[in-house]
Amino acid sequence: MSRSGRRYKPLQQSGNGGGFFPARCDRVRMPRARVLLLCFLGVLVLAAAVLRAYLPNDTAGAQVSRVPAADLSKDRSSHKPSKVSAAQISRLASQVDAARLWETHLRPILIERLPGTKGSLAVQQHITSTLSSLSAGWAVDLDSFRSPTPRGQVTFTNVVATLDPTARRRLLLACHYDSKALPPDPRAPERVFLGASDSAVPCAMILELVTSLDAQLRSFKLQRLPVTLQLVFFDGEESFEEWTATDSLYGSRHLAELMASTPHPTASSHTTLLQAVDLFVLLDLLGGPNPLIANHFDNTARWFDRLIAAEKRLHRQGLLKSHPSEQTYFRKDVYLGPVQDDHIPFLHKGVPVLHIIATPFPQFWHTLDDTEENMHRPTVENLTKIMAVFLAEYLGL
């Protein structure tokens, strides 16, 4: 419920005409010295109560964070990326393994993966086992919940991986791993919707990013810096029938609410996991040839500029394939309107969003032709290299 919807109960008036505090000292008939002493003791009690509210409670054995939300917002807005050198760009690009991305990360996701099914569970296990095998030491959590849908109660599971859960702030990199239920093709009833671009390829890109950067992320984690990297693989992005506010975005709606009500750090009384998110970067509908990716939000335009710069620098160094000009993908001179996606529940709660999505949508969007055969391998590899440079600069790897 929003702040404007809360009801506040007024303080009850005491019988002697006073408010919340006891009657004033000068209304008590007693010697002056005793009056002064009692007033002094009252001040001490009040001061102790105030200090207790604002200082850690050591006797409880918990360290209570007193970082105001305003400080997190200031740190977020003042965060400055590092600028990697030409040699670093070459090394980052060389670490991206296109064959591993395709064969190891993507292929196991190219199955029907409707929420609550065996296919969904298989993809969950693929994601969690891949992350658990890395040396960086990811904390992997399954956020499972049940929700009503047009097809009855369904179990959804978001996969959430955090590099350093104790860090004050996090860069959140997200995609969705569920697939959409489409009517069968009467000419080929055995075919199912695989959602290669929507969103198997983005999931595989994220897995390849953290695999290729594993050594750097391990060293980064050991530095215990204020910002960390968090990955979210959403379940239930797709609608079961027609897209509505209640039949769509099941996983992201649930996780946004959960993070908004979860203190961070654990014993904090001032900040939540949602307020700890510096930037919400969402990948979707990637994998087709010649994607046009526009900037959707003015308040994150400086981060979109980093993507443009990374694309240009990689192009100039000859590190991108089938890439005709230095600014092929990321464009600020076009805008085709807003897109409903997993960022919406977070955007509505004030989280800055960087939406990396092809617009206009690919021609095979929400058709049985969204398959591996229609993906463009050089483009997928190029976008992964651009994202590797972006992560390295944001985190200072």
UniProtKB/TrEMBL annotation:
Q: Which reaction does it catalyse?
A: N-terminal L-glutaminyl-[peptide] = N-terminal 5-oxo-L-prolyl-[peptide] + NH4(+)
| Secretion signal span | none
Its EC number(s): 2.3.2.5
- Spans through the membrane: 35-55
Region (Disordered) location: 65-84
Q: What is its main location?
A: secreted
Q: Report which superkingdom the organism of origin falls in.
A: Eukaryota
What Gene Ontology terms describe what this protein does at the molecular function level? glutaminyl-peptide cyclotransferase activity; zinc ion binding
Localized where? Secreted
Q: Which UniProt keywords apply?
A: Acyltransferase, Disulfide bond, Membrane, Metal-binding, Secreted, Transferase, Transmembrane, Transmembrane helix, Zinc
Q: Which GO cellular component term is one of those annotated?
A: extracellular region
Q: Which residues form the Peptidase M28 domain?
A: 158-390
Kindly name one Pfam family recorded for this protein: Peptidase_M28
Q: What PANTHER family does the record point to?
A: GLUTAMINYL-PEPTIDE CYCLOTRANSFERASE, GLUTAMINYL-PEPTIDE CYCLOTRANSFERASE-LIKE PROTEIN
Q: Which family does it belong to?
A: Belongs to the glutaminyl-peptide cyclotransferase family.
Q: Protein name, please?
A: Glutaminyl-peptide cyclotransferase
Q: Organism source for this protein?
A: Austrofundulus limnaeus
Gene coding for it: qpctla
